[in-house]
Amino acid sequence: MLGGFGRSGSTLLERCLAQCEDFMGLGELLHLWERGLRDNELCGCGLPFHECPVWQQIGVQAYGRWGRIDTDQAIADRRTVIRNRFLPELILQRGFGQRRQARQRLLSNLSKLYRAADTVADGKVLVDSSKHPAYAYFLRSLPIDLRCVLVVRDPRGVAYSWSKVVTRPETGSRAEDMPRYSVPASIFNWTTYSLLFHALTLLRIPVLTVHYEEFMTDPTRTLEEVIRFAGLEPTQARVPEFADGHITLDAHHTVAGNPMRFKVGQIKLKFDNAWTTQMKDLDRRLATTLSAPLRLFYRFNQR
Q1: Which residue spans traverse the membrane (predicted)?
Q2: Are 25 and 254 in contact (CB under 8 A)?
């Protein structure tokens, strides 16, 4: 699973991994129930979810057909259980009160889903880019080999990115925008997500930290590191080619994520450091101050 607060490059990393012959990108499965089943939003391949042959195959393999899932119940279960505030329950792998039954239903649905995706992927490493730490803690209860890659980026760049208006193309005529966050909210989430993913190691879940800046500077080295982390050897056949900073991307069957999941063909890996010149001085100083301790830990520029 790819973790970390959004706008840190996780979608691009997932796309590049999906170009490796032994990996299959699934997108943010955390949001499958509402964005795929309920809203029929576009898969990364460009087709509506219910018209995508890969996701239909997964649905048949998992449940007989997607129509057998109570969509509203599945959405409610996910929203009831997957919350950072319920971290004690997630650590103990238990549910209390009304969350007990919701937890069991969600476990059952996800067990079937991941098992079916594994079958359809023919044993490839599944890349779930859900990013949410509570979801990672919940996945510990599934019979899967869970390994987490924490993607971190300079928090000032993250905060600047979340301040911009970004339209979600998969919503079609609804023309919905992605959420926006204030600088304090962005830094709080960036810090919380990072700390919670690091804490997974205390529960014997392997966690690898990948820096967005290093990924953009040397993508081949980063992919080789992730491939080894997944238990494979990064042979030449397994690593996609980067020619002069470009990579050719195929269409991938991702259910949710950053709009760049729709880009296909040759793209240039562009190091986005617009925040260094375009971020408001007040916002930059605030982000710098609030994120200082963890930025020091990650060895980001302190200025």
Answers
A1: none
A2: yes
Element (H, E) at 96: none
C-alpha–C-alpha distance, residues 20 and 23, integer Å: 6
Write down the pLDDT at residue 237: 75
Residues 35, 137: contact at Cβ < 8 Å? no
Let me know: does 41 contact 187? Beta carbons within 8 Å: no
How far is it, in rounded angstroms, from Cα 114 to Cα 194? 25
Q: Is the pLDDT of residue 175 over 90?
A: no
| Domain boundaries of the chain, sorted by first residue | 2-298
**Three-class DSSP category at 128:** strand
Query: Per-residue pLDDT tens for 152-166?
Result: 999 999 999 999 888
pTM: 0.94
Please state, rounded to an integer, the average pLDDT across all residues of the chain.
Answer: 94
Helix, coil or strand: residue 2 = strand
Task: For residues 208-231, give the mean pLDDT.
Answer: 96
**What is the chain's percent helix, strand, coil content, to nearest 5?**
55, 10, 35
Q: How far apart, in whole angstroms, are the C-alpha atoms of residue 75 and residue 30?
A: 10
Helix (H) or strand (E) holding 125: strand 125-128
- Residues 14 and 10: their CA atoms lie apart, in Å, by 6
Nearest Cα residue to 1 out of 19, 119, 13: 13
pLDDT of residue 174: 64
Q: Which two tokens stand for residue 32?
A: 């499958």
Maximum Cα–Cα distance for the chain, whole Å?
56
Half-sphere exposure for 94 (CA within 13 Å, toward CB): 4
Distance CA 128, CA 223 (A): 16
Q: Within 10 Å of residue 142's Cβ, how many Cβ atoms?
A: 14
Query: How many other β-carbons are positioned within 10 Å of the β-carbon of residue 58?
Result: 25
